[in-house]
Amino acid sequence: MALSLATKVLVCASVAVSLSGCQSQKPAEQTTVAVQEQQVHIPYEKYTLDNGLTVILHEDHSDPLVHVDVTYHVGSAREDAGKSGFAHFFEHMMFQGSEHVADEEHFRIITEAGGTLNGTTNTDRTNYFESVPANQLEKVLWLEADRMGFLLPAVNQTKFENQRDTVKNERAQRVDNQPYGLRSEKNGEALYPAGHPYSWSTIGYVEDLDRVDVNDLKAFFKRWYGPNNAVLTIGGDIDVAQTRVWVEKYFGPVPRGPEVADPEPQPVTLTEDRYVTVEDKVHLPLLQITFPTVYARHPDEAPLDVLADILGGGKTSLFYKNLVKEGVAVQAGVSHPCRELACEFQLLALANPQKVEKLATLNTLVDETLTEFETRGVNEDDLQRTKGGIEASTIFGLQSVSGKVSALSGGETFYGQPDLVQADLDRYRNVTAEDVMRVYRQYIKGKHAVTVSVVPKGHAEMAAAPQNFTLPPRDIPSPDESAGDVVTAEIKDTFDRTVVPEAGPAPTVHVPEFWKTKLAPGIDMLGVTSAETPTVTLTLNLEGGMLLDPQDKAGLAYLTAAMMNESTENYSNEALSNELAKLGSSVSFSASGRYTQVSVSSLTKYLDETMALVQEKLFHPAFNEEDFNRLKARMAQSLQQSMRNPDYLANRVKEKVLYGEENRVSLPASGTLETLANIELADIKDFYSKYYTPSHATIVAVSDLTQIQMASALSFLSAWQPADYTIPVFSDFPEYDKTQIFVVDNPQAVQSVVYLVKRALTFDATGDYFLARLMNFPLGGAFNSRINLNLREDKGYTYGASTSFIGGKTLGWFEAHANVTAANTADSIIEMMKEIKLYREQGMTEEELRFMQNAFTLSDALEYETPNSKVAFLRQLLAYDLADDYRETQTSLIRNMTTDRLNAVAQRELNLDEMQIIVVGDAEALAPQLATLDLPVVPLSLN
Length: 943
Fold this sequence. Notes:
Elements: H1 5-13, E1 45-48, E2 54-59, E3 65-72, H2 86-93, H3 105-112, E4 116-121, E5 126-133, H4 137-149, H5 157-176, H6 183-191, H7 206-211, H8 214-224, E6 230-236, H9 240-251, E7 274-280, E8 286-292, H10 301-312, H11 318-324, E9 329-335, E10 344-351, H12 359-376, H13 380-397, H14 401-415, H15 421-429, H16 433-444, E11 450-456, E12 515-519, E13 523-529, E14 535-543, H17 556-564, H18 573-583, E15 586-592, E16 595-603, H19 607-619, H20 625-642, H21 646-659, H22 673-677, H23 681-691, E17 697-703, H24 707-713, E18 741-745, E19 751-759, H25 768-781, H26 786-794, E20 798-807, E21 812-821, H27 825-842, H28 846-858, H29 867-879, H30 886-895, H31 899-909, E22 916-921, H32 923-931, E23 937-940
Parallel strand pairs: 2-6, 7-11, 13-17, 18-22, 18-23
Antiparallel strand pairs: 1-2, 3-5, 3-6, 4-5, 8-10, 8-11, 9-10, 12-13, 14-16, 14-17, 15-16, 19-21, 19-22, 20-21
Helix pairs in contact: 1-13, 1-15, 2-5, 4-9, 10-16, 11-12, 13-15, 13-18, 17-23, 25-28, 25-31, 26-27, 27-31
């Protein structure tokens, strides 16, 4: 689907979402975003070390946390032909320890410090980042400096082989075993000439990964990972003077690397239309048309983005009107993703096979839509929507420290200007209708494009046109002599790097200070007043959700919520979307699990106008037959497509095994094709009449408004008439007298999806369920857990393995899960069972107990930063009627916990004899493997 223009602006500036400091019992110093005369800036301090490392510091004392980002200006675009995937491969290697940090210790140290961490790679950069309590900053800087300056001595052949297997598993899980997974790779191969840095995907080709050795990888690191090719950005609750001392201490001695020149943009042009056909395990044929355009921050990028928004940016767009609303496409959109070297103008549509037999028909409709746009031109509302969306998304995007750090880092890495937020606002606000029409004629009208058709296997005739492009044999240079041993430069220090820095005094963290009220129709409401940004985030929760569906009409709550997002009595669907977009507001209805939810976000200055539209949508839905038929048909096609997704199949079987066939809770929120077919428009109206009432409603809100102001904004709810209803409780679930393997066939799958499941505890905040979550953490609840280290790091069977206890009000279950290489399916099941059995019999160690205690208690500093995290906290309070001080009780329990107490929980809850095994994979190929497990194999199919 199209990336919304407002989101695109944030991506361009690397402004991510969410930072709002907690309103604690003791008022905290707050950082407010000043929006005066539309000027929005992120304050920062920038300097450069003698070795070339650029350092950016940003103070924000609203929460006791810091976010550290190290961005290296190297991505897959810096790779040599035949060595694709190196940058991403090295992202993995950077977590495998360094000279003074043992293997896997980076994850353990950050997790035990109460923090989170990760790394990402794209075509143009690789970054590593941590969010931790503010007192842990020195430790993070020590870690990042150690892998910048001392990584190579710790890289060996064993780690190399292990991470190569992990990367292969990641590719299998995300690309080769996923419907449409090859689309982006095939598009890049056809769009860019051979040898262009964007002609291969970031994850790379498996044959390239197999071709190289550990010394090639070391040479890649030495070439690109010097401090002079990096930006260190630190934001949050920092002491600038002390931070500068630490940065110099840990990073200053790291020697400068080879000089690195910024790459020149390489936009491309096509001399012919290229057609590529991909036969895949899909139900919905997909059409993607890609025009090459400019490069990031080119003057024409902004008007091209606006053009994409007009053509395919949601319900106000021409693609929605002509393709989705007419029912010929299930989804359709237009986007203009830009990268450092080149941009792409992408038109995308998922065909409705009931109305479109061949993608050529859809292609014709796309051409007609472009012609309609040229005739229609750009109107004032188009530009207002753009400006409204940009302003709102920019302000919402400044709510998190991580978002601001990412913005500063991205601006500096690519353009040498950390704070580009206002510059981005200005360049989009300055786009004119004439600019949009000019770029349409210059880059799109009559221009050559790459058209990728993804069609069901065996149906190449459905493609938009016969394939006329085939990737020529890759010109792989003759292998150079091995890079040989790569020597690490000697670094002289005045301190001992083997000593892990001590953390400072732990910050005092309190839950957000919140207020309570009861609105006129009897709705309980909780709220947090935070002055950090002039925004409102609100949810209205109606309890019952899918549990209220008749079993033969499963999906009714889901479809009713979808209908609430359509036309009202006084507005067409498009008119409502237009009004919201001009405000930069969002109002959406959804239903999943136990709740129907209305989610609202708005700039405070537009709250009254937004609430008027909430009132219209909530109280005056039109329930038009045309909307109903279109949504029902779209849901049916989406359900058929989901049946090609192995993860969806595994979850369907999991629910069936846990709760039986004749039970509403064993079916997905959207129902099945059979139950969806039973739903009529009259059922929607009846469901709305019975269950869209305030009788089981609650509201939570986070804003810069007082309790009285928020209550006033919601005063229209006083007219809402209560009508009570009963939420059913489900039981009569299947019982098993032995462990069985339930197998769903996914022919030719390169991976198997594996689950071990059993029904387990329902939610509680301080009882057995809470203790089970604590107990589970060392087993499978962290990266350094036993099961993940075994299957991912030691065996190389999977990209990730985990165990979880998941509990709600009336249902709960335990699951162990991994997507594993098909050849190691049985081996993976054996290892998962072995780890669970050993943990149950021997229990956790004292060291694992301390690890869990620190991870759970110290992470409180990160818990309440954003409006969304505050909303989640308030929703949980209301949903489970928790005591105001329940988090204090939890903290006390954790600090006083013993291994004996948690091991008793493991004894009770981890009985393998009570677990069932689920496998989604190539049943015929897996049969010999599974037979070795000496367990009954039960084939299952889903309609």
